[in-house]
Specification:
This protein has 677 residues and is of the alpha+beta class. Helices cover 32% and strands 21% of the residues. It contains 18 helices and 26 strands. The relative contact order is 0.11.
Length: 677
């Protein structure tokens, strides 16, 4: 290559001698300008990297603190990115010495810095080139979690007494709140109900629906020969619960949706529903036809749907004849009053939502319109927010007869610091099942309900089964402080030091697998949520039906489920290119054998474990890969309930603390009956 370059230069010099001096000076000037431009471009491209190196070499500690990687057992640092050994970055390390209370002490995450150049440059390279959206989200959560843990130490060092939080007077909430339309607009149409609702609470809204506007509906373009414009006038009123994790919508305890111009039915309707963890329930639609008068269809004695006038229902000729005959023979006819649809475009309305004993009752203009029964897992005290969306102008909102305290805001009401609720030390011998319970930071009531109910099962008290809660950190440091106090006392919480997000629940699942492999010796590992009630004896019997030493994946299995490509919870082709998901068990509760858990941890450590934001689908994907090399027994049973509870259940989902106590009392009586309040 060098010889070729020399020959080219000699040839150019010979040509220059034969040309006129003026032309030679002209071409030399252009060559020099070109070289200067090339040099400037090179400097501009390389200058940021040079600046990074200079900053790192200048002795700035901030550059050295960029990497969050930790030292593994051999003393060698792992490479950058969030694919580190989870337990080595977690607050509980394998086989640590237990304190006098039998609980594992919490320690700061250890950090091993790269070289000063590597720490800054490698971090940026990963963030800009190699990591996916999920990887970057996880990396950010780890970073914020590390800062939150450091702030927690400073928070405690300020001398703030936890007793003032845990043992002080119950927090007081106002018995009524009100707001104007202008104030509501400043808060993004959200109104805070400090301590939720109680039976007898009511919310009154005064508003005016907008006139209908055109909306484009792509699905109608195929059926209407290109005409996909429809007139729409609708609004939504929602009672929302506490947001559990960042990135996840809060649960919708009541979703009330009047559609003045109708929907696919082309008639005005009022739809009611609930939504929890992105899962919508079965809608209750009122379209002008009265609901049944059966006792099981009534809500506190009210019809679920009242009758209103409909253009498509007219008296037939036969009915008119019978009406004339009734008058002729003198039979008295009960007068019937039929009201129009309660909402009219451009006309003011007064709507009241009242919380009854069995459900919500909706009145408009002083007249009962609909009632919606309470659903399993959704409690009145959880309705801490009122959200209003859609084509409506709200003039004022008034909420009255509100409760004055809330258990989730008052940990002293639910955290029972009694010796009998402390967790037993981890057994050193082999156990049947390790159960990891996913929980959110502020779910003090849910964790306490589990400690007092199914964690008191004989198999757990005899150390045949071990249970631990896996909790990530919260952006609010006062909640993290209470969580740490709770973890230190009860000894049953594993704090995973990242800021909680729905998309990162999969990291908690990996933490459960690693804890079940390294900290205990369990034949099986079960994952469940903190609103899941587990019948320990029934689950044990179901596992014992499986031949020993056989790889197992047990739960409520889904087959040939397809990812949603449109809508709010769409999954892109980049996230999931396949047409269907692999067979997977529903996330609220499933079981895997320890060999599968070891395979998952092994794949995670060598960075070959594929991650997906839906943790139950991820588990199905990992099991499917393991099944390609070692046969796995897939065991399906509907009694691992996905929605609510069924008789003779194995696990019951969406159970509130109140329902858990009821289920436990039923089990003590020898009956596996549900408690659907």
């Amino acid at each position: 290559m060098l010889c070729v370059l020399i020959r080219f230069i000699i040839r150019m010099m010979k040509r220059l001698k034969n040309e006129a001096s003026s032309v030679r000076r002209f071409k030399l000037s252009y060559i020099l300008l070109g070289l200067a431009a090339f040099y400037l471009i090179l400097i501009c491209v390389k200058f940021p990297e040079f600046l990074e190196s200079a900053t790192a070499l200048s002795g700035d500690d901030a550059a050295a603190d960029v990497a969050l990687d930790v030292e593994d057992d051999g003393g060698e640092s792992s490479t950058s990115g969030f694919h580190n050994n989870l337990s080595q970055y977690a607050l509980v390390t394998p086989r640590e010495e237990e304190n006098e209370n039998g609980a594992l002490p919490h320690k700061k995450p250890r950090k091993l810095h790269y070289g000063r150049i590597t720490a800054a440059i490698m971090k940026r390279n990963n963030m800009e080139r190699n990591l996916s959206v999920l990887d970057r989200m996880a990396d950010e959560a780890w970073t914020l979690g590390s800062k939150a843990w450091e702030e927690l130490d400073k928070y405690e060092e300020k001398g703030i007494e936890m007793n003032s939080i845990l043992e002080g007077k119950p927090e007081s909430c106002p018995s009524w709140v009100s707001t104007s339309g202008a104030q509501l607009a400043k808060t993004d149409q959200l109104m805070f109900l400090p301590c939720g609702l109680a039976a007898g609470s009511s919310i009154t809204l005064i508003g005016t629906p907008h006139y209908a506007h055109h909306e484009y509906v792509p699905q109608l373009a195929k059926t209407r020969a290109g005409d996909a414009l429809v007139l729409v006038s609708q609004f939504m009123i929602e009672l929302q619960g506490l947001k559990s994790v960042v990135g996840e919508d809060p649960p919708k305890i009541l979703h009330l949706n009047p559609r003045i111009r109708g929907d696919w039915s082309h008639r005005p309707v009022i739809e009611h529903n609930t939504c929890y963890r992105m899962q919508w329930g079965t809608a209750q639609r009122c379209d002008g036809l009265p609901s049944k008068y059966d006792d099981d269809m009534l809500v506190d004695g009210y019809l679920r749907c009242e009758k209103w006038m409909r253009n498509d229902i007219v008296d037939t000729r036969e009915s008119k004849i019978f009406s004339w005959f009734d008058r002729f023979i003198g039979r008295a006819k009960k007068p019937e009053v039929t009201w129009p649809f309660p909402f009219v475009e451009g006309r003011m309305f007064i709507l009241t939502i009242r919380a009854g004993i069995d459900g919500y009752h909706i009145n408009v203009g002083g007249r009962h319109v609909t009632s919606f029964p309470y659903r399993t897992g959704f409690t009145l005290e959880d309705a801490t927010g009122l959200a209003i969306r859609g084509d409506v102008d709200i003039h004022s909102v008034y909420a009255t007869s509100l409760p004055t305290s809330h258990p989730s805001f008052s940990p002293q009401r639910v955290l029972d610091f009694s010796e009998k609720w402390k967790s037993l030390p981890l057994p050193q011998n082999r156990i049947q099942i390790f159960i990891g319970v996913l929980s959110a930071t502020n779910h003090f009531a849910e964790r306490m309900a589990i400690r007092k109910t199914w964690m008191q099962a004989s198999a757990i008290k005899s150390s045949d089964i071990a249970v631990r809660f896996f909790v990530a950190l919260n952006p609010r440091k006062e909640l993290n402080a209470i969580l740490k106090k709770e973890a230190d006392y009860f000894g049953d919480i594993v704090i995973v030091p990242f800021i909680d997000r729905y998309e990162l629940v999969v990291l908690k699942t990996i933490a459960i697998c690693e804890y079940g492999v390294q900290n205990v010796t369990a034949a099986y590992i079960m994952k469940c949520d903190d609103d899941n009630f587990v019948r320990i004896d029934a689950v044990l019997r179901e596992i014992q039906r499986v031949p020993p030493r056989r790889s197992l994946y047990m739960g409520n299995l889904n087959l040939l489920h397809r990812p949603l490509r449109t809508g709010k919870w769409a999954v892109s082709f980049e996230e999931w290119p396949e047409d269907v998901y692999p067979p997977y068990a529903n996330g609220p509760g499933y079981i895997i054998s320890s060999d599968i858990a070891k395979h998952i941890i092994s794949q995670y450590r060598n960075r070959s474990l594929r991650l997906f934001k839906m943790e139950d689908v991820s588990m199905g994907m990992w099991v499917e890969k393991y099944n390609s090399s070692a046969p796995v027994q897939y065991s399906h049973n509907w009694k691992f309930c996905q929605y609510g509870c069924m008789e003779d259940y194995f696990t019951a989902h969406y159970q509130s603390p109140r329902q858990m106590f009821c289920l436990w009392n039923n089990l003590l009586k020898g009956k596996a009956h549900c408690c659907n309040f």
